Amino acid sequence: MVEIPNSAIRSLYQRFDASNETFRARLKRPLTYAEKILFLHFDDPLGQELERGKSSGLFRVDRVAMQDATAQMALLQFMQTGRAQVAVPSTVHCDHLIRAQAGATVDLERAQTEHGEVYRFLADSAAKYGIGFWKPGAGIIHQVVLENYAFPGGMMIGTDSHTPNAGGLGMIAIGVGGADAAEAMAGVAWGVRMPTLLGVHLKGTLSGWTSAKDVILKVADLLTVKGGTGAIVEYFGPGTRCISTTGKATITNMGAEIGATTSLFPCDARMPPYLRATGRVELAELVEEYADRLTADPEVEADPERFFDRVIEIDLDALEPHLVGPHTPDLARPVSRMKKDVAEQGYPDEISTALIGSCTNSSYEDMGRAAHVARQATRAGLRVKTPLLVTPGSESVHRTIRRDGQLEVLTDAGALVLANACGPCIGQWKRDDMKPGTPNSILTSYNRNFRRRNDGSAETMAFIGSPEIVTAMAFAGRLSFDPLHDSLETPDGNEFRFAPPEAADLPAQGLVDSPVGYVAPADDPGKVDIRVDPQSERLQLLAPFLAWDGKDFEDLPVLLKAEGKCTTDHISPAGPWLRYRGHLDRISDNMFIGAINAFSGEEGKSHGRAFHEVAREHKAAGRRWVVFGDDNYGEGSSREHAAMSPRFLGAAAVVTKSFARIHETNLKKQGVLPLTLKDPADFDKVKEDDRVSVTGLTALAPGSEITVVLKHADGSEERVGCAHTLTDQQIEWFRAGSALAWIGSQSV
Ligand code: SF4
Question: For this structure, is 637 an active site residue?
Fold first, then answer.
């Protein structure tokens, strides 16, 4: 079952009243909208602890979505659970692997050749396990989910950090790793620390050039890239109601850039029309019927400080269009100040390429506003001065804007239309116009602008704005051009000024229903074979990690003592390694490639040998090993390979001064013991040729003491006290070898 029937959504909505009453009584106060959804999805509503930022929440999610780069490991792990079919509606979307170079048709053909093996594996796995499969070119995961599957009041997880896009349609949608997805698909409750709540009060109304994009650019400016960490950002106030559903999705999508767990908007009158325009008429009626449940209690808007851990306010009447960047989404300024920043900061003024679309900003409204701007300029005889690349978010939007004329306006102005895929947004952009290493400015309507993100070049400075601002500036070809106030000279010598963009948020005839590229699960899954070539370097079936042998770890070598910052990028970098995400052995060649060896200062090496080589030698000899790490070990992305590769090559324990939370959980999921030094100064006692024993494992229990014994080469010993944060459930994972091995051991 890929679709959730409306009857099931009705049943969910019918449970709201009782759930809300229970938790209002428990908390002795009204509830925010995020709380209502979270509480409705608790695995054990009565036993669940509610302390924000502390308690572990366990949830029953309504659906799972996976993109192709991460779905490989998610599905390989799902296979280990031994389940015949997924327990929750799930989909796979082929969007990340397609390289953008020559335009949609050519790029898609090439992708089939380059990644055919991976696509076949994903398609076969989807067919066999009851998962909906969206082929390459069908669209970008978040846009397709919004158009087909998201619904107010629901809760989903997705193996992509911009999964919160569905928050624009009033859904709690959270980005996770492949193991989390595999667990949820296996029917196990999904766990996350209870988020804190951050309220964003929107007042006033969007108008003229200012768009939803500018709301999130302003939020990033106010909160910075870390400001939303561990929080659900809940929007409220009269300003929410002037923003279209797809505009809301732009805002929640890009909430990932402030580190938020997710972001969401309450249900309002803009959502049912969007559901109707995307062909979900019955669901629209259902949402209208239950609209009063799909929002915060009225007291929240009246007195927000009482309900949220932090509240910020944005006045949409006063909000100007913004541009952010380069290299970080929280370096913001109004468009009107860009000229000054170009002069003062020395940013290359010439825009080398302008790019609009992506999962963040490719709605009918976005393309309509961009086309409105482009039409004004072309009517005045102008063409874009810089290459303008357009990435539609889905085949449905693509066909709709072709039917309604916006696409023609953009191509008439000189735009090149790329495949409905991530392309330049994820670094899959083969540029032929710029020598690597050349400083240059690009302008996008995407969501992320870290160095190297778009074209792999550290010298490319990526600035982000709304699609209409990006399009207008493409006609000037300069960052210093202010579309609101500056003019351009037309070929006949006249002065041309843009008028503010105008466009409908939804097509009068609805979006073109485009099942093109969708493949339903097989009717007879038993007949589907999943083929993985043993010689493949892209895919490898996983063997379960061995269960714990019931004994303390004795006399293990120290593979690595990592000094200073050791992020998931140091442990398991992405970039060229993206290609091997489905092959654990091959990708493990990158293990600790960026870690700094505390004994020698070498990067990624011990005595001149790569860490993975040394680890493979230990593994071949049947020896497990230990890693010591500094503060906040494993910070960065939630990349599960940073835990899987060490486990695969033999890590028994990782002992640190402190962990980044998600990485610590990932280690637990993979059956590696994460320990923290009670006295961080003990880090200095670890010597390169120590043999390490970890004692206390037979009595392992939540909060139990663990002692690490450092046996030095001179025969002396030092005993070091360690703490752990394993719960009863996580101890089961450790004993079974991994979370998935434990799930596989449970009867279905
Ligand atoms: S378009 Fe960009 S942000 Fe969206 S899913 Fe693809 S890579 Fe991620």
Answer: yes
Residue 624 annotated as catalytic: no
Instruction: Give me the CATH code for the 320-496 domain, please.
Output: 3.30.499.10
More confident residue, 659 or 270: 270
Say how far apart CA 272 and CA 220 lie, in whole Å: 29
Alpha-carbon distance values, 549 to 272, 367, 601, 664 (Å): 56, 59, 35, 22
Contact 31, 20 (CB under 8 A): yes
- Give the mutation target among 251, 444, 445, 447 for probing the ligand 1 site: most ligand atoms within 8 A of CB: 447
| Residue 645 appears among annotated catalytic residues | no
What residue ranges do the domains of the chain occupy? 320-496, 553-745
pLDDT band at 453 (very low <50, low <70, confident <90, very high): confident
- Give pLDDT tens digits for 168-195: 999 999 998 899 999 999 999 998 889 9
Token pair 């503010």 is found at: 500
Distance CA(485)–CA(456), nearest Å, equals 34
- Tokens standing for 480? 């210093």
Atom of ligand 1 nearest to the CA of 358: 1
Atom 4 of ligand 1: nearest residue by CA position: 359
Listed residue (152, 120, 147, 145) closest to 64, CA to CA: 145
Q: What CATH class has 553-745? A: alpha beta
What is the tens place of the pLDDT at every residue in 343-381? Answer: 999 999 999 999 999 999 999 999 999 999 999 999 999
CA of 287 to the centre of ligand 1 (A): 28
Does the fold of domain 553-745 match that of domain 320-496? Answer: no
Pocket lining: 422 vs ligand 1, CB cutoff 6 Å: yes
Catalytic residue among 41, 83, 280, 448: 448
pTM value is 0.92
Clarify whether 639 is annotated catalytic.
yes
The ligand 1 atom nearest the CA atom of 391: 1
Please check whether residue 466 is in contact with residue 428, taking contact to mean a CB–CB distance below 8 angstroms: no
Q: Using CA atoms of 535, 540, 541, 543 in order, give the dihedral in degrees to the nearest 10.
A: 100
Q: Rounded CA gap, 156 and 3, in Å?
A: 13
Note the pLDDT of residue 748.
54
- Structure confidence by residue, pLDDT tens digits, 266-306: 999 999 999 999 999 999 999 999 999 999 999 999 999 99
Give 479-515 as a DSSP string. Answer: TT--TTT--EE-TTS-EE-PPPP---SS-TT------
Which of the residues 62, 160, 268, 455 is marked catalytic? 160
Ligand 1 pocket member 141 (CB < 6 A)? yes
Q: What are the C-alpha distances in Å from 667 to residues 91, 136, 291, 482, 653?
A: 26, 32, 41, 49, 9
Q: Is the Cβ–Cβ distance between 223 and 250 less than 8 Å?
A: no
Structure tokens at 324: 């952010």
276 is catalytic: no
Q: What is the dihedral of CA 563, 565, 569, 573, to 10 degrees?
A: -30
